[in-house]
Amino acid sequence: MDWRSAVKSYVKDIKPAQPHERKEQYEQHYSALMEEQAKREVLLEPTLKEIPKFYTHKTLEGKQLHNRLFYIARNNIIEESRESILDHEKFEDLWNIISLHLSDDNQERLNYESFFTVGDIMNKRYKNTFAHLFTPQVFMKFAPDQYGRISAATFFDYVQKRSIVERITMNLYCSDVIGQGYMRETHLEVFVFELVQQGHIPKLNTLNTSFFPFYVSMAVRKFYFFMDPKHTDKIKIDDLVLSPIMNELEDAIHAELTPQAEAENWFTVRSALNVYGNFAALDTDKNGRLSKSDVLRFHGCILTDTFVNELFQNIKLKRGEMEFKSYLNLVLAMKHRNTPQGMSYFFKILDVQKKGYLTVWDINYFFKDIMKKLRQEGCDVVPVEDVRDEIFDMVKPQNPYHITLEDLMRSNVGHIVIGILIDM
User: Fold this and answer.
1) Half-sphere exposure (CA, 13 Å, Cβ side) for 424?
2) What is the DSSP string of 176-244?
3) What is the chain's Cα-based Rg?
4) DSSP code per residue over 57-120
5) DSSP 3-state assignment of 47?
6) Taking the model in full, what pTM does it have?
7) In angstroms, rounded to a whole number, what is the distance separating the alpha carbons of residues 405 and 396?
């Protein structure tokens, strides 16, 4: 037998591997490669036997073969993931199959046997692509009735939501160009911009395309304000997918929102136009930035001169003025003043001397503007000592002489204290 015949005979006997089997093969092969690499490194550097390598800089620069292998492997995994995500046509097919196997009492329920019958039909039609949706573990997720049946509509809704999460996860991993499992701000901007270009944001395609970059900045800023408190420019993709902020974005894309919900959702076009409109109204010289006098006219409150001066000391400025992203941080902090992220934002500004806590001096420093305004308005002036004592009584700090950020968060009145010190 010649070698061609031998190869054909060998290939003929090989059964195609299922996705989970291929994944196991990849992991085994990868582990073997890593073991070989570790042995080679020990030969080059014998000290690795005693002191293991604890840091490897991940980069694709200057590694052409590594780059090519990485992109091929990533594209293969993405393609396999696409096959396991239900599209509109497959959703209809699934519901039609479910409808044929419902209980006879018109309650739209599936028993244990019917559930797996539906799964067998789907697996035969789509080559076991959706086997993970029809397992005992999935069936047990749903509350059964007295006959052990589950709601078909609830199961179908679960499949839809799971598919949305899987699709978002896949798209985020597509945007992860280095393959490290997290998103930088520029990568997340690409992800959101693709959503915009593909028309997934309702009503946005009716606006001028010049507004798109502002919408992208708005959307991305909320993720980083809440999920990157240490300003590392990194958010894990798994954390992104499971975050309530991503749920809010999904609602803006898929849900039928009431007018009130539409106004409260940060990612709707209505909210975006409102935030951008307020920024444009404050920008008196129309240069795309805000001066201190512009910020003093911030909508919804009357900020003190002292606070605005300290605010400008703590943000990145361009030609001495506030840019749009910094304005978005301020808007989010004002709107979510009672959250840990909002309180952290303001505490950094209120802690003028960067001691890590607020003292009587800080309270006097910020409250003096409010006392001055009250005198100008002819109102009764509250002694600063009374305000100071009231703040300490409200917060009840662990140390009676200063207030930490943790004290504010624990007190449940941190947002009120912040309002007393910055808002007239």
Assistant:
1) 24
2) -SS-SSEE-HHHHHHHHHHHHHTT-STTGGGS-GGGHHHHHHHHHHHHHHHH-TT--S-EEHHHHHHSH
3) 29
4) ----TT-HHHHHHHHHHHHHHHHHHHHTS--HHHHHHHHHHHHTT--TTSS-EE-HHHHHHHHH
5) helix
6) 0.73
7) 12
Contact 325, 221 (CB under 8 A): yes
Q: How are beta strands 321-322 and 317-318 bridged, if at all?
A: antiparallel
- Sign for the CA dihedral angle at 295, 300, 303, 309 comes to negative
Residues 418 and 346 sit within 8 Å (Cβ to Cβ)? yes
Q: If you search the block for the tokens 């420019």, which residue do you land on?
A: 233
- Which tokens in the block code for residue 205? 């395609």
In whole angstroms, give the CA distance from residue 416 to residue 393: 13
The candidate with the shortest Cα–Cα distance to 309, out of 336, 279, 349, 348, is 349
- Per-residue pLDDT of the chain (424 residues), as tens digits, is 565 666 566 556 555 566 566 667 777 877 777 788 778 777 877 887 777 777 666 554 445 656 667 667 767 766 766 666 777 788 888 999 999 989 877 788 999 999 999 999 998 888 777 788 899 999 998 999 988 999 999 999 888 878 877 777 777 877 776 677 888 998 899 889 988 887 878 888 888 889 999 999 999 999 999 999 888 999 998 899 889 999 899 888 876 788 898 999 999 999 999 999 999 999 999 999 999 999 999 988 889 999 999 999 999 999 999 999 999 999 999 999 999 999 999 999 999 999 999 999 999 999 888 888 778 777 777 788 888 889 999 999 999 999 999 999 999 999 999 999 998 7
CA distances for 102 relative to 95, 97, 138, 141, angstroms: 11, 9, 18, 18
Q: Is residue 299 a contact partner of residue 292, using CB atoms and an 8 Å limit?
A: no
Q: Give just the sign of the alpha carbon dihedral 347, 352, 354, 359.
A: negative
- Report which of 412, 387, 407 is spatially closest to residue 397, judged by C-alpha positions: 407
Distance (Å) of CA 379 to CA 370, 375, 405: 11, 6, 32
For 155, the enclosing helix (H) or strand (E) is helix 152-175
Assigned token pair, 52: 């293991």
Structure tokens at 265: 């959702």
Tokens 């808002």, residue?
Answer: 423
Angle at alpha carbon of residue 272, lines to 270 and 273, rounded to 5°: 65
